[in-house]
Structures
1.
Amino acid sequence: MSTVRNTIIIGSGPAGLTAAIYTARASLAPLVIEGEPSSTSDQPGGQLMLTTEVENFPGFPEGIMGPELMMNFRSQAERFGAEFITEKVTKVDFSSRPFKVWIRDTEYSANSIIVATGAQSLMLDLPRETELIGHGVSTCATCDGFFFRGHEIAVVGGGDSAVEEAMFLTKFASKVHLIVRRDTLRASRIMQDRALTNEKIQIHWNSRVSELQGEQSLSGVTLTDTNDNSTRPLAVTGLFIAIGHKPNTAIFQSVLNMEDTGYLLTRDGSTYTDIEGIFACGDVQDHTYRQAITAAGSGCMAALDCERWLEHQH
Amino acid sequence: MAQSITTLTSANFDETIGSSDTPILVDFWAEWCGPCKAIAPVLAEIATEQAGNITIAKLNVDDYGDIAMRFNVMSIPTLIVFNKGEAAKRLVGAVGKGKLLQELAEFLPNSR
């Protein structure tokens, strides 16, 4: 039998690490199972690990690099005694207390769990998409933009992250095509203005990517008009996908209450899930705000909810 | 621990790959790549634990873009395993230690 801990935090983005800072300062000695390296946002540190400059996190008037911000969160949690494991939880059992989580064959148990597994980027789900990752198709503009110096490339998506990636990629590419499904951008006003006035960005409204071309590496895509279904080719050597996110909740299927879309349900104005002693915070339960600062805020709420709940369990 | 990782340059790349007694895993990386930083400690651990079985080397694509281009690296981290001088396996994107060891199993003698 493993020792029973006060709390285990699953996930290490802004929500998980804020919960770690608070529970560590409350002397709960949290164990953070932070995830494992990947080139998607499902990795230690979460979505900000794939961004560059974060301009809207309060307290950094000059902005701060996303990965650096997350390193700061992590060292702050470590300073108060949070313990880290750089692995992914493979299975959970919340049916009895103490709650159990597994990393492959190793079992960990705790009186409470804070779920902060976040969300990861959606893919287009097109034939050959997976094969072409690393050969023109990319989910990480900051990792791969460099290789497209002087190339014509495309970004798919109309939200803040798509526009941000398009802006970033103009540093390298000769031209960036922004493929937008509707006739408007979902991105915030300031990002929209930047995209619309950038000479290197050409927006393709009412368009979706319907086909990928290229043998060894991407040579072009087919765009389909969402109004009349007409198609047209677009010659690009890079395709960056930023069409939204899905919550990382596969291991909680039929364990915790969730929406059809997979987002965990929490009790209004709190971080309580449908199982007492299990709390959820950050993007895994929020498809509305999805900001680093709101995730951090809800991570703090989860820590306080958890601490108070544990106090009443005697 | 970091000394056990070989740093490759244009000057020593071909010779190092060609003359290696063991399979050699080359990590194509750059300073500005978050996922590259995330796997650095994993590679350092493997370099120590598997010393003598596999050589871990890294190549900075910012400094030696010509070599990255030669191997059509368009995404980093890209890990290429060279065996007897030939590119034998290619992994694109960051992975955890368990997954990486699985992928490397065919090049490691004692890991059945």
Note: The two ends of chain A are 22 Å apart (CA to CA).
2.
Amino acid sequence: MSALPHSGKATTPRAVARVERARLARPNGWWGMAIFVATEATLFGTILGTYFYLRFNNLHWPPPGVPEPKLTLPLVLTAILVSTSVPVQLSVSAAARGQLPRARAALLFAAVLQAGYLGMQLHLFVHDVHEFPPSGSAYSSIYFTMLGAHHLHVFVGILLTLWILIRTASGLTSYRMNGLRATAFYWHFVNVLALCVLGTQLSPLA
Amino acid sequence: MATTVTEPGLRRVERLERIWVEPRGLLGWLTTTDHKRIGLLYFFTTLAFFGAGGIEALLMRTQLSQPEEKVLSPETYNQLMTMHGVTMIFLFVIPMAIGAFGNYLVPLMIGARDMAFPRLNALSFWLFLASGLFMYASVFMHAAPNAGWFDYVPLALKPYSPGRNIDFYALGLIFNGISSTAAALNFIVTIFKLRAPGMSMNRMPLFCFAMLAVSLSLIFALPSLTIDLVFLELQRNLGFHFFDVPHGGDPLLWQHLFWLFGHPEVYIIILPAFGIATSIIPTFSKRKMIAFPLVALAELLVAFIGFGVWAHHMFATGLPTITLVFFAAASMMVVIPSTIQVFAWTVTVALGRPEFRAPLMFIGGFIVFFVLGGLSGIMFAAIPFDQATTDTYFVVAHFHFIIFGAAVFPILGGMFYWFPKVTGRLYHEGAAKFSFWLAFVGTALTFFPMHVVGLLGMTRRVYTYPSSLGWDAYNLSETIGAFILTAGLLLIFANLAYSRFRGAPAGPDPFFGGTLEWTTTSPPPPYNFPVIPTVKSAYPNWDVEDRRADAARLERGELVFDEGHETPASTVVDAVPDEIVEMPSESPWPLAVAVCTGLLFVMLLTRHYAVAGVFAGLALLAVAAWHAKEPLET
Amino acid sequence: MRTRGLAVGPEFLQWFGLFGAALTWTVQLVVGFGVTIARCGPANAVLGVDVKAWEVALMAAGIALVLLSEGAALSVLWETRNVDESGPPPEGRRRFFAVAASIGNLFFLVIIVLSGTGAVVHQPCHPA
């Protein structure tokens, strides 16, 4: 059993790359994030389910006096967000090969796009809240709850990315590599979620 | 396993001892990450809540013992009734089963040194304790939740519940849910990744299959409750509209989301009991469980199908027949996996050489109550019958037979069964058997008459009843039964408390159990196993040759992992050894995160949202500090 | 392993046999339930849901997929007929999963047939 990779002892990019090559299964930290994603995905499932349940409960959707959802800007913003899955995944594969500077650059690039996305979305959110407040109808209540929950998840993702960037400033260990893998998985989840939320948000236009 | 340990072996054991031992005293307990200590913390905390829930029950039963009693006001009764349900479900039976039993036993049964995320484990406990204190603060403020444990709208909305009672309920359960989610996540990753070499999934103990089913259910069920409670708080406090018709909402939305959680919740309650039963039966029948794959299947299948039956709690709400048929169909089928299990349990005992010591007697009581409770349960799958009996005491009878008779009896039996492992001492067998009979008679006398009085029309949640309806004698016997049951429970705890200090020494394996916890000392050392076991069957402690081989490995230093705070991780399905993982040791951060989170929820309750944001930020900083200390930097 | 000209590995058959029927039922329940809510809610005036067509289609697709899943489980059961279910992986583990899956899938078949039939036979939207 001494031939087993010892992830606890891998504290340089080369050692981490060796552990990554030798390991058969995904690390515990990845599985932890996968289960967390499962529960958050279910949470959003119930939110989206509620959206359609309330939709079926209402003849006019949106109700009279509430504007139809905007199409172009949400579509473009979501496309930008979803595209960050590429640099995030590139960051993981670079780190797994021991190429830390490349990994950090890719992650930083993604983080800038993600922060820009969030800033724009929050601006739209605040504007919409003034136009059709949640206290007006079930439509606006579920609209803002759904979007608010999504933006909160993007915010948490940005915090995770910042944390990994901070920690990897002083080098790469297996612990941080596992954190990077987990963060990347989280982002892929958030991006798929963004598509589902967008689809739901735009569904009255269909 | 009696072995002579030689010099090199002793040195390795000493090294493991030094690496894994935690500080003694209060600081050690506050910063613990040892799954066994955390299990004990859960055990004693949940017992305290059991006592609270029991007192609530006895007060209610006293009020109901006679018609038109004036022991409690209707308002107090509503709070007791609600808190009894919330306490027993969220603060006793589930945390006892998974936090105490699951935490203590799962790493031992799979041959690991700890859970996959030891600090997260500690966090789960501290969050649980904080959520319980949060909810009970409401009792001391005379503002306890009072709309029933399922808190239906519109009663729970601001116009009908203007006080803080419902906010305590909603925020308290969201808080509690974070703890349970973290625990479930930990169990799944532990069961997937930390099983001993050779313990492929077909060789995993049935208790672990039950814990896996419970954990997966919690992961997929809790979000529904969480979002329901979030919607409720948003509507109550920020004027959102989810549940009121004039603004396009629907009161039934609350019920759908609640029961989408609530039904899997009842399988979450019963599955650990199945796990305990399937551990005790093979040991005391001295043979393997028959139809092992079918029992494992049944545990997972009942949890899975249980996600598709939720609207059987809504058969009387006026939903269309074409909607309800989905749930009637699944509700009829969900009983069959449990039938498979009952068959397997009884045939295993019949084909074995059963020794009816206290643990097996409690399992016998469990089987009786489970069959009876299951029969009344399946009756509800028939929509017309359900519509006649919903919200009557017939339902109360059914779920108490299941929750008390079938979920708690194995917990009591399991307390006796694993008492020697945890304490190193034997309990008093005679007193244990007598306490079983008291508990059995008490349970039967308390809950059986409820079937009859329910069919006679007594509705649930009433604080009193008139004398003219013929319900008096039943209610009086139920109250008498409750006190007999209490006597039995007190005798159980007296026995365990006394035996903790005066019981005979137990040794590692007093009952000749088949699973891995019986291979190590009683109580286990902090590192659980000096040598990580190699497993070739589902009952590894009965494979004597393999256990001798383990002992031989100690000398050679194979599978000892004594170079640090180490445990091996393996592949998910086939448990092929994969890497050596460094485990964290004691940490103050889980407690810190829990304190910040508790204060966050208090601020949400009192609607100081800005301050709540500050505490959320502090909690995040504590999480950052936690992760800044990587396990190797011990 | 060749099955009707398709080369699929025993691992795939094992997993499809274990999870296929369960996931099929999940979809049939969620969509089937959703369709009845849509049909019987106020929005049906706008949506015009043909609930019988939906439920028949769901039931037919459901039965087909469950039978395929069961076929996969049974094929693994047959391949491992001489293996002990507590034996070493991968064969022992495959047998174990196949035994469980081949029984479990039958439950989903019955539930889909019962619920689909019920949703089609009853007149829409009469309260139970």
Note: The radius of gyration of chain B is 25 Å.
